[in-house]
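Exercise 3.2. Students should predict the tertiary structure of the chain below and write it as structure tokens, then compare their answer with the key that follows.

Predict this chain's 3D structure.
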Amino acid sequence: MWELARLFGTLGTIAFGGPAAHVAMMRTEVVTRRKWMTDQQFLDLVAATQLIPGPNSTELAIHIGHRRAGWPGLLVAGAAFILPAALIVTMVAWGYVTYGSLPDVRAVMAGIAPVVIAIVGHGLLGMSHSAVKSPWLAVLGLGSLIAVLAGVHELAVLGGATVLAIVVHLASTRGVVTTLAGLLAGGSAASVGAQTVAAAAAPFSIGTMFAMFLKTGAVLFGSGYVLLAFLRADFVERLGWLTEGQLLDAIAVGQITPGPVFTTATFIGYVLDGPRGALLATVGIFLPAFVFVALTAPIVPKLRSSPLMGAVLDGVTVASLGLMAAVTWQLGQAALSGGLTLTIAIVSLAVLLRTRVHSGWLILAGAALGWIALRTNV
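Answer key:
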């Protein structure tokens, strides 16, 4: 239990870069360093998080905790990953409310960003060896990458990968009844994910705020950019509690601070109602993740033992890697904007490939180089 708390507490403190980077870091720690599970078992958990709503990297931490230490481990790993990030965001929100603006951290983040790109790239290389088991899975992963870069919604990509995996598997087994059942289940899940709870414009209410974040955590599939759409619809358009500028500041804080991107909710909660709002917003948006993982964790091994569901997991896994690759490419275009950042990324990737250095040290080195470049006008 202490090892789980220490590992995920550390990751919640230094894991910059969003879900793709978090997954890469977790794989390094639990598969490569500690050997708590095999690459295939890890990838099955990654795929399982894609099949339920909520913050994927947080759910992966919760799954790993459950796999390692049962129900107590589920709670400890999830809380340890969330708490440091939530505290950091709360401190930033206090400064924001007190002084009216965010500190200028662009130089530091410019140094961290290329390290994050290298970490994600390294994780993708490692996971692809286990995930791409056949030529058709390679095609599916590449197709997912191309589809996302072409602008297809990531939920549509994952849904399409699920359907294709079922069809390809049953092309040989002829399980028509099972196919129909799987498609009906997928349609039901999609309809649940599409539901929203409309709220009439009203004066601020702590109960309504909690309900909005609870709803978002319970129905949101996809990345932090999908989170932006949900928050804008609820807090800017429907309730009118935030301005567009405040929402963008909240999303920026979620992106530039370590740990889950969903701590954007912590920032908004503090802006709306101080420490109490930060606490309830954090609990509201993350609580569904614990519930969904608790419900699905016991059946993940059974999914792998089923030929049909094993095929679905394989398809969702390579599609997820395609999504991660697309995010890495898109972020890389912005992050690798000059000779210094490109050098940091290349050196970081080389270090990761040739050594077992902790990625946290590379992140600190990148931050220091970004700060030095600012001071020396490099």
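Discussion points: Residues 175-200 have pLDDT under 50 and may be disordered. Residues 56-99 form the longest helix (44 residues).
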